[in-house]
Write a structure and sequence with these properties.
The chain is of the alpha/beta class. This is Lipopolysaccharide biosynthesis glycosyltransferase.
Length: 777
């Protein structure tokens, strides 16, 4: 393969693109054609969708040609992600049939505008005379063709037009051209039951859905009850429930009227729904309802949703706006959590102590109190609270973690301060994420072979950087900040910086030794963002203060530069993650004399909703196909960077009857991690460091892309073919083909890995020379 230099002067600049373009995550939307006459039906449709599917919140495209501002406001009040799109009535003037003043005919024409949508991978159309009664999860998982329910009255050849599930290949100029040509030719039939143009083009070629997804009212003639399994009830015909209805269908219309309610009734019904509530819906409906009622329990739910999304100040605001009774422990605990996340520690402590008085919330409250004490360097206080949490609940995992942290004895420093570098990093606990455990040591190797306390002074990023910590850092030769994706808002939130290092501006500004930001990553997931201006202010100050500011991929560089003023952007440079050049950094490293005949598979489950969306079942099924096919050539084993990573083995066994041995890498030390990855033939990994660590020790990789950073790294080494999206329609086949291709040409692929690594090493060496000059060494 032809190589291209990756030195700073010639480094490829990754384009700034939407995260979903990097992860391949499917974008899904609902769509309806709405006019003023059918607005009452659409409002009921929106309520029914939220109440029947409370965990679902996709964009909803409203096609319209004449909606008043007041009507639009009513629509927006019922859905937080409305996308308004005017239809082009003139576009259909050349069509030869139909009365443009007839709503049914206009709807049949205008709904064809849905095929002109280009922003989504899947669009689900719903008629405004429908009501959603059941789970639509199966529709959201569909990935093939154009799906619809066959017409009840006219046989299987034609589709019923109210419900369409349209995939990307139909949302295209080519398919629209077919629709237009048929429309202009007049070679179709159109009546109140039939979207004739679409049926004429498809000629029966569509995916058949069960009738329960478009159960037409006429099937209930004679006042029959609505079947229990009906997911969508469609009030076809001229008589609509909001217009007085039609005799002989009273039981069907009763189901529709279940969702004809006031905003207050609707908000309360949603907030009381069982199962998981979608963050966007919970906030959209809960915020006005809390303002209207002052209900503490609803405020707690909304605040918890804000916390889950990283909107900590919003959580503080909504709970601070209601009166919390002293004996309501859960709201006190949530408010305490929110307050500590914005660094209002004294107020948080008061709230958590109130929560600790209730046995059902005490363990969690004590664990948070232990966390705050640890953050402030008070190990004795932290151990006291963690022990109290374990006394309430001996199985409480968080209390046990803080007890272990508080009881651990830091290594005694061996060197003099003037010989040391201070090192801000996330120092992982025992049984923590294996990649994060390896990172601090590997960062240190980038500065020399001695990674011990003789040369390094550890500063845990999550501990509050107070005046005493500042003095200790200023007594050293310099400060290195690095050891993972520190630019992420929610791993250990604080209000001082809004990223992982808990440093106030005044103390960051007072650092008077050289600051070197080394191989840090911008780690926001697809669907996650930094909403706080605090982060931007802290980031700008950090760049201003830094003598060296290196990020570990060009995607992170583009994201961070976009947040900086122009005069600071050029300070941001490329410094590969040192794990990717481990063969050059680890003292005495030798490549393995032999490799085991294995392929190691890693999957990640933190923030699973952001990783998989609606596609987890698809991902698991495709991985099962690949494991069977690859397993026919080479043994496949599961490697778990953290305890949660073992889920892939459990799910494959339960759902697909595949049993894989599990390697608990979270129990390994750093040498064992490197050795395991060096002695396997291929690593298929979803975690960033399930790609970078094996690559760094010379092992071929295939990345399962569920996070932009995976694509960033592969772009930097100019091997995008070494990655495949977890959402890929043909994931199993693609993964199998690439894996077997690598195994069949293993020596050649290893040589290519070494070649790509040499380019990263050139960058690292050039940066090392600059750092030596900065440190005067």
């Amino acid at each position: 393969m032809t190589t291209t230099s990756l030195t700073p002067a010639a480094a490829p600049q990754a384009p700034v693109t939407a995260a979903h373009d990097l992860t391949g995550k499917r974008r899904i939307a609902f769509a309806s054609y709405v006019d003023e006459n059918y607005l009452p039906g659409f409002l009921v449709l929106l309520r029914s969708l939220a109440l029947s599917n409370p965990s679902v919140c996709e964009d909803f495209v409203v096609l319209h040609d004449d909606l008043r501002p007041g009507s639009i406001a009513k629509i927006r009040a019922l859905h937080p992600r409305i996308v308004l799109r005017r239809v082009n009535a003139e576009h259909y003037d050349s069509y030869k049939k139909g009365d443009q003043d007839n709503y049914l005919v206009r709807k049949a024409y205008f709904i064809l505008d849905v095929f002109r949508i280009r922003e989504y991978d899947t669009v689900i159309t719903l008629d405004t005379d429908m009501v959603v009664l059941g789970d639509l999860g199966e529709l959201l998982k569909l990935r093939e063709g154009l799906a619809a329910v066959p017409q009840f009255f006219y046989g299987q050849h034609k589709l019923n037009s109210g419900l369409l599930v349209i995939q990307r290949e139909y949302l295209s100029d080519a398919f629209c051209a077919k629709l237009d040509a048929t429309g202009r030719s007049g070679d179709y039939e159109l009546d109140k039951h039939d979207q004739g143009i679409l049926n004429a083009v498809l000629d029966g070629d569509f995916v058949r859905l069960d009738a329960r997804y478009n159960f037409v009212k006429r099937r209930l003639s004679g006042d029959l009850p609505v079947p229990e399994d009906t997911a969508i009830l469609h009030f076809t015909g001229r008589h609509k429930p909001w217009q007085g209805g039609e005799s002989g269908y009273s039981q069907a219309e009763e189901r529709w009227r279940e969702f004809e309610m006031s905003d207050a009734e609707f908000h309360a019904a949603y907030l009381n729904s069982s199962g998981g509530l979608h963050h966007d819906l919970l906030v959209h409906f809960g915020t006005p309802h809390v303002k209207r009622t002052g209900n503490v329990e609803y405020a707690r739910k909304v605040a918890a949703a804000h916390i889950a999304a990283g909107d900590y100040q919003d959580a503080v605001d909504i709970l601070s706006g209601v009166r919390i009774p002293l004996d309501e422990a859960w709201p006190h605990e949530v408010l305490g959590h929110a307050l500590m996340s914005v660094s209002r520690y004294d107020e948080a402590k008061a709230q958590l102590l109130l929560a600790a008085a209730a046995p059902n919330r005490a363990a969690t409250a004590y664990a948070r109190l232990a966390q705050m004490a640890w953050v402030h360097g008070d190990n004795a206080e932290a151990l006291k609270y963690a022990t109290a949490g374990l006394a309430v609940d001996p199985t409480h995992r968080s209390s046990r973690l803080w007890a272990q942290r508080a009881a651990s004895v830091p290594a005694q420093e061996l060197g003099a301060p003037e010989d040391q570098l201070a090192h801000v990093a996330f120092y992982m606990d025992r049984q923590g994420n294996a990649g994060d455990k390896l990172l601090p040591e590997t960062v240190r190797l980038g500065f020399g072979p001695d990674t011990t306390t003789r040369r390094w002074h550890s500063v845990h990023a999550h501990r509050y950087f107070d005046k005493a910590a500042l003095d200790r850092v200023n007594a050293r030769r310099g400060l290195v900040i690095g050891g993972g994706g520190l630019f992420i808002p929610d791993t250990m939130p604080n209000g001082n910086s809004a990223w992982q290092w808990n440093v106030p501006d005044e103390h960051l500004r007072a650092i008077d030794v050289p600051i070197m930001v080394y191989a840090v990553g911008f780690n926001a997931f697809d669907g996650q963002s930094y909403r706080a201006g605090r982060f931007r202010e802290s980031l700008r100050l950090l760049v201003e203060k830094s003598a060296f500011f290196g990020l570990r991929n060009h995607g992170s560089i583009a994201k961070v530069r976009a947040m900086l003023p122009a005069h600071l952007q050029d300070k941001v440079r490329f410094q590969p993650c040192p794990t990717t050049v481990s063969r050059q950094l680890v003292p005495g490293w030798t490549d393995p004399a032999y490799r085991e005949d294995t392929v190691l598979l890693n999957a990640a489950y933190d923030r699973a909703g952001l990783r998989f969306g609606h596609d987890y079942a698809h991902f698991l099924g495709e991985i099962a196909k690949a494991v069977r096919a690859i397993g026919a050539h080479t043994e496949v084993r599961c490697v778990a960077h953290s305890l949660d990573d073992e889920k892939i083995a459990f799910d494959l066994r339960r759902e697909h009857g595949i049993s894989l041995p599990v390697i608990p890498m979270y129990d390994f030390d750093n040498d064992e991690i490197r050795e395991l990855y060096a002695k396997t033939r291929l690593v298929i990994g979803m975690r960033g460091h399930a790609g970078m660590i094996p690559f760094g020790v010379g092992t071929p990789i295939i990345s399962l892309i569920s996070h932009p950073k995976m694509a960033y790294f592969l772009a930097d080494i100019e091997r995008p073919e070494w990655g495949v999206s977890v959402h890929d329609k043909n994931l199993g086949a693609v993964l199998t083909e690439r894996a077997i291709g690598i195994l069949d040409d293993h020596a050649g692929t290893v040589a290519d890995v070494h070649d790509r690594q040499r380019e990263l090493w050139k960058v690292t060496e050039a940066n090392a020379a600059d750092i030596r000059a900065i440190l005067g060494a």
